[in-house]
Amino acid sequence: MRATSSVIVGRDAEIELLDEALESAPRGAGRAVFLVGEAGIGKSRLAGECALRAYDRDMPVLRGRATSTGLVVPFRPLVEALSSRFRAAGAPDDPELDPYRPALAGLVPEWRASATAPGYAISLVELAEALLRLLAVLGRERGCVILLEDLHDSDTETIAVVEYVADNVADLPVLLVGTLRPDPGPALDLALAAELRNTASVTELGPLDETAVRHMVDACLDAAPGEVPPAAHRHLSQRAGGNPYLVEVLLADLLDMGRLSRADDGWRLADHGEATVPTGAVRSWARRLARLDEPVRELLLIAATLGGRFSVGALRVVTGLDDRALFAHLRSASEAGIIAPDGAAHDHYTFRHVLTADALRASLPPAEQAALARRAAQAIEESAVASLSCDRPGELSGDQSQLVATLRLAAGDKVAASRQFAQVGRQMLDAGASGSAAVLLERARGLAADGERDEVTVQLAIAQAESGRTDVASALLDDLAPVPVGSPAAEERAQAHTQVAWVATMAEQQQEARRRIRAARALLGAEPRPEQEAALVVVEGHLALLPEQGGQEGVGDPGSPAGRDGRERLKEAERSARGAALTAEQRGRPVVACQAWQLLALLSRQRGFDEADACLVRMLEVAEKHRLAVSRAEALVRLGTNAFMRTGEATQLETARAAAHELGSLTVLQTVDGLLAMQSVLAGRWDRAREIVDRSVEASARLQNLSAHRYLLLVDATLAAHQGRGREQERALARFRRAGGEESMLVPLQRGLCQAVGALMAEDRKRATAELDAALAWEREHPSFFYLSGRYGLRPLLRILDGDGAGGNAGGGGGREAYQEALASPGGQLAWNRMFLGLADAVLRGRDGDPDGARRAVDEAGRAATVFPQAWHLALRLVAEAALADSWGEPVAWLRTAEEYFHEAGVQPVAGACRALLRQSGVSVPQRRGGRERIPAELRTAGVTPREYEVFVLLLERPGNLQIAQRLCISPRTVEKHMASLMAKTGCVDRSALCALSAERAEDQGPAGIASRQPSA
């Protein structure tokens, strides 16, 4: 006879909530629901009911549970959830998941064979985004459910991933259900904060009322209403406090003791005169243990000492039993309903409820609990020493070390427990699990002896910094007691300060980074070791690249103190970084060496991209030699960026993207995607740019990849600007500003590549010039390494067009001066800028009476512009005015070409300006009417109108004017005018030549083209 309920009672409102969530998920209205309640209140049963209802809807279900052993196991609930679905089926083969396979393979070992190992520690946000994309793919047809139980026992990494999913699941076909206790901690903080942000529903499960307890007891006993004595119902309701688990435990106790039994006329409750019936699970389980065989009872007490979930191997070590006896006792305990095999791991068992293990441990006197824990710890340690077949004989695994630490603590040995927790914490920090490392190191710090606490605190500070909590890390380091300058303890602390400074610099927390650097230098003294100085120099160099926070006076004045100080800082940073790179290589610090070469590549751009590429090639060599996957990918990305800037082509960027994909780094992928999107904008590939931005911009925000996110937002604005869509441009720029874009290094691109071009597309040259001047002013005051801001191409051209001697508002001088400065700069050698500088040269030559030189300059500029169609047509529109004024070049053809391009693109301000200039030059401008898309490009460029093209098409049959007039319903005189115009525009000397040209074009186009050529009535 069972003592468990086959139905769920008293939870109608909660089931209704879950039903609604299951209904809405397939429609793309995802939700996160957190079920909160004390142990035994019924959270897992509700989660199980949700899973069953999802199965009924044929929805994929992923289910995982945190460990209740007290061990910190990163991502355990997520590993179990993914394994529950994919261990047998293997990895999904949807191509949308390709960029995320390396991250997901880190959670499911079975996937690693089909996915390239990432080669570095996947960041939490990357992993969270990968999980989110996986869930979206799984739920594409019917929705999917992910159930994560006992989140209060989860590691900090899992909590962070769950928070990310909860915050971003609203528009996906996904239901996230989490269960947790109402105990203070990260899990409860997550649930309450998500509810406050309206990204999750939190339902607190209260105790069952008497009616619900009565229904539950009847279900447990298969009893009809009224068969169970009311006294039994009252007894269970009062003693269990409405807790379903305790109702079942106490009911089982009544049945086992014979106090509740079935009679012919129903159930009877015997009164044995025991007013002191057990008031909780402890005494109840003590009784149940007493009725088990001694070996089984001993095994269960040892298992409970190991935790709510235990491995067969650990139990074998501690008990000393052989497999036959061990598994016999495990079967007996399982048949008694006390333990069950753990479905997530074949060699583990779990207690039916976490309260069971707690109750069993509490049934022992404290001294016996401590002795049993000490015995278990010693057995596990001795087993590791005796194991010579493992890779690292004599050393405990991470899980074993945590278990031993927990057992030592239970035995009262705090110092030993601290050392074990600290050891595992350092291992997790090295593996990239900084959040779990911080939890373990925090435990170690609280237990450490006075002489060991500072060392643990330093490691804890590094873990907190790597987790993004630089404020906590700094506070920990600042609270340490002073140590002698230059001592080993001081050097260890200085390294920690340096690492925190690097994290702060990457997060653009300049003041905090500088404080950490000062603290590190104070600890190292006047003469730090070369490798220590190299690490600090690299951080200081990267810090020097950031714009000064809070602004500077004298902006716009190239001779201002701020500008001079900035340039001197960069020169000093470059000198120091070069020495740091060499030192780091010699002293075995490859990561620092790669950081230094990366810095040098950026700083050396001002002397030429060949030198910058040489630095990146060296960075690549170091990374490959020392197998630094992230540094290798970053070197390839920067090499690809330089190639794109030189040529306008994206070939090497695509290669870099492939490397980032192989690496499995979503943050590097997003960086490359931003660059590819910008290249697509400059190349006029609007759809490609839009696809990349739409795919990556929100994902980069979720990943908190701030630099890539800002760049993608700027690409979005630049895309709108280059298409002449002013309102879209302003909306995108507003998002860019909210993301801190105007306090970043992207300001020159914002002003020069986006807003200035947008102004030109609106035919507002005055505003365009002002934007370019503002970009130049910013660059003179701040470190800047963006060479597409207009300073080295578009601005000199506009200055020359406005008048050779015009002065610059930002200290840029006249047109010739700006042109010469750009020509002498490495930026002037980039394809985008060469196009504008070539046309500036043409304008100057034409103005100086050298039409042949001007023509050659235009041809040269055209070769540089082959990948930039939009910019080339805009530039032709700009220089045509000067060519008309100075009688050089082919301004009419340029204007017709530009007018055609911008009319087709829907940029009417530029197209209208081209038509106005054509009229001013005395050229007839055809009226715009439908059908122009059918005219071949060379005829459109020649100015052939749709009506003229209809006449041209009919000439294939060599008809007379009267026949053409009848076909087109126009007069023969009008046909005659069209014929004359066609001969003039095509250069045909007579009607026969024009007919031959029509036949030639028809032959080129083939049958389909001929059909499309037929005029409509």
Number of helices: 47
- pLDDT averaged residue by residue: 85
Computed structural class: mainly alpha
Our measurement of the CA-to-CA distance between the termini, rounded to an integer number of angstroms, reads: 90 Å
Measured by DSSP, the beta-strand proportion falls in under 5%
Over the alpha carbons, how many angstroms does the gyration radius reach?
Answer: 38 Å
How are the strands of the biggest sheet laid out side by side? 2-3-4-1-5
Largest sheet: 5 strands, parallel
How many β-strands, per DSSP? Answer: 10
Helical content class: 55-70%
Oligomer: single chain
- Detail the poorly predicted runs: 115-119, 273-280, 550-563, 805-812, 1007-1017
Shape: elongated
Characteristic key phrases:
single chain, 1017 residues, 5-stranded parallel β-sheet, 3-stranded antiparallel β-sheet, disordered C terminus
Structural write-up:
- This protein has 1017 residues and is mainly alpha-helical.
- The chain has 47 helices and ten strands.
- The chain has a five-stranded parallel sheet with strand order 2-3-4-1-5, sandwiched between helices. It has a three-stranded antiparallel sheet with strand order 8-10-9. Strands 6-7 form a two-stranded antiparallel sheet.
- α12 crosses α13 (312-319) and α36 runs parallel beside α38.
- The longest helix is centred in the middle third of the chain and has 26 residues, at 561-586.
